[in-house]
Amino acid sequence: MKTSRRRIVINPQTRSIPLENVAPTRPFRQAPPPKEIIIRLQDVSKIYPDGSRCLIGANLNLKRGDFIFITGTSGTGKSTLLKLLYGEETPSSGQIYVNGSEVHELKGDHLAKFRRRIGVVFQDYKLIPNRTVAENVAFVLQAQGRRQQEIERRLLPTLKMVGLAHKADAFPDQLSGGEQQRVSIARAIVGTPPLVLADEPTGNLDLENATQILRTLENLNTYGATIIVTTHDHHLAGLSGKPIVELRQGQLYWQKR
Amino acid sequence: MLQILTKLRYLCRETLSGLQRGGWMNWAAISTVTVSLFLFGLSLQTSWQLDALLAHFGSQLEISVYLQPDISGQDVIDQVQAFPTVQEVRVVSKEEAWQSLLYELRVADPDYATQQLEGNPLVDELKVTAYSPQSVPNLVERLTTLPQVDYCVYINEAREQFEQLQAGLSWVSLSLISILSITAIAVVTTTLHLIAVARRNELEIMQLVGATKVWIIIPFICQGILFGLAGGILSLILITTLRTLIAQFLFTEQEFLRFLTEQLTLTSLQMSLLPLILLSGGGGIGLISSYLALRRLALR
């Protein structure tokens, strides 16, 4: 397959990276047709055993290549919504389809393989302290059973993409909060998933670092990845100019498209 | 081929990583497996040795017939030889027996010892061999009725005692091994569980990025098996060392002890079986422990 030669600029502070060195395979190289539905929530409710209600008959359709923010105050269920999408939680009622699969029906190896097509960025980073940046990122591919050659091929371009190639051998505790979050992003995207879910990726960061993280996610989106970012910061979401869905009292409300 | 190498490399790395997390708990796990397998191996080896001893006794159809004092073996030999179930009769004179005893007891001055005991205290003995083991009890009964005979000793009595000893030992060792095996499994399970808890972040991330359940649990199973194998190897070293030391200690010119020493030697089949049994026992303990430890992990 012939690859395009266009170049992208991630951030004024980071280097320009040729596309062919960044995202090795689909879907980032070629944006797929934008009309395909990648996420569908139908009357989804989530009620915990203690009676707390996170979602009540929520509906949402997202197309491939979309980038949305999900906002809401703390405790409204933003993280739960993402967990439902990657199958860590099961809905009390309703259906959730992601990449054409009904998520709560998936178990065992099917669930594992489904998750390989989703990149998750955690608010608390979830980095492994005794592994270097490169090892943390490569760990995903190792856990998926990828070959060493492929791991090496993907690792450096991904670290370059998040501007951390020079810190490949550093340990997480030697990095700032923003850098740790970028490692978390690198880990989420190194397998080039078509869907990236970021749970409060800017929650612990200052404005400069938060903006940098969002730019990285926007760049991913330009390669065709569908991005969902949860945040309690309406202002930050508003600055990006991307559509915002507000989670309020268990319902999802589109604010801007 | 590359895929297999990748998997092997992953397994080695993750297993090593788990062992590093284990620290001293690794040693606790290995040492309990070692003690358990050591006792198991020792009782198995003892049981083989007792079997060999019993088999050896079983092949002996010989009855020792001790005569009354002042009765010569030569006077009775023809009478005994005439019994239909007797295959062979041999006389051991009291002088011959006395010399043999003095030699075995390493008495420096035989004449002095004889003088102290006011002469040779032994009696003449007939070594009677029967045609078949079944005929031995009847033959003994008939020999005992002879007026020249004081008493008879035949191997069935010793055999019965050995069998009772073996049965007793089996029960004691079985109980001990059961308790220790359960302890070993509990310790290895706890060790693996603690390692899993220490690595819960990694396990969670592995699950979330799409590692299959098998891919996650195999390093733990490898760790459990490694604990078991290490315990098996250590117990084998201990058992072999102990056997060699006992054999060296018992090596003597005394006939009975020399006979015992010979019975301590395992056959080549047993020498090959013992390591195999210990290693598979260790592997089994490791496998069961890994299964139990992982069952407690909530992997979806």
Automatic annotation (TrEMBL), chain A:
Keywords, alphabetical: ATP-binding, Cell cycle, Cell division, Cell membrane, Membrane, Nucleotide-binding, Transport
Lineage top rank: taxon: Bacteria
CDD domains: ABC_MJ0796_LolCDE_FtsE
GO molecular function: ATP binding
A Pfam family: ABC_tran
InterPro entries assigned to the protein according to its UniProt record, in alphabetical order: AAA+_ATPase, ABC_transporter-like_ATP-bd, ABC_transporter-like_CS, ABC_transpr_LolD-like, Cell_div_FtsE, MacB-like_ATP-bd, P-loop_NTPase
Annotated transmembrane regions: none
Main location: membrane
Gene3D superfamilies: P-loop containing nucleotide triphosphate hydrolases
Domain ABC transporter: residue ranges: 39-257
Record SUPFAM superfamilies: P-loop containing nucleoside triphosphate hydrolases
NCBIfam families in UniProt: FtsE (TIGR02673)
Protein name, UniProt field: Cell division ATP-binding protein FtsE
Species: Spirulina subsalsa FACHB-351
TrEMBL record, chain B:
Top-rank taxon, per record: Bacteria
Keyword NADP among record annotations: no
Pfam families named in the record: FtsX_ECD (PF18075)
Residue ranges of every copy of the FtsX extracellular domain listed in the record: 61-150
Alphabetical UniProt keywords: Cell cycle, Cell division, Cell membrane, Membrane, Transmembrane, Transmembrane helix
Regions that span the bilayer: 24-44, 171-195, 216-239, 273-294
Protein family per UniProt: Belongs to the ABC-4 integral membrane protein family. FtsX subfamily.
Listed name of the protein: Cell division protein FtsX
Native source organism of the sequence: Spirulina subsalsa FACHB-351
